[in-house]
Amino acid sequence: MDELTRGLVQAIQLILSADPALLEIIFLSLRVTGLALLISTLVGVPAGAALGLSRLRARGLVTALLYTGMGLPPVVVGLFVYLMLSRSGPFGMLGWLFTPSAMVAAEIIISFPLVTGLTMTAVQGTDPALRVQVRSLGATRAQETWAVLSEARIGVVAAIVAAFGSIISEVGAVMLVGGNIDGKTRVLTTAIVLNTRTGDFVLAIALGIILLALAFIANAAMLRLQGQADR
Fold it and tell me: Which domain holds residue 16?
């Protein structure tokens, strides 16, 4: 117990000292996760809204595919992206393997179904009378979609936060396609695994604290938005 306490104290001291190696890992993690989340949000939210408002017969099939994507094992995603980006793969000419770009691609595949599927569910949960009302006021299709998304904004924010939590804590996929290269593709989760294996528990604990803090901030922001919406 004393060893754990000592490790926590040293980890906090390491964080407060703004260690350059630690900051490098944090900034790379945020850059990769932020870019993947941005792309998934820009594509996934409109796609989820369109599916939620659609009455196409194929919507059931698309929904089933989305829900399957939400449950994909990340390591399988990593394997798929690895094969696609390897020298013998169809996208090998890009030279993305073992770079942050490959990590972003893997995280997009993981987060996109979450953003799209949960946005679709949030849109479907809105009052159908809202669509009738905005149509009666002469709203265009785009305005109708925006009105529904505004009503379902808490669910949309929850979708984005869920996707963030999923990819910021991802290990298997990013390790496969990124290679966990020091100063190049080492992020919070892969650094925790490496430092735990090498016995550097102080750095591993520090990284773990930061990872938990990021997850807490994201969830606190979502709860704050929910509280504002309920007023």
Answer: 2-230
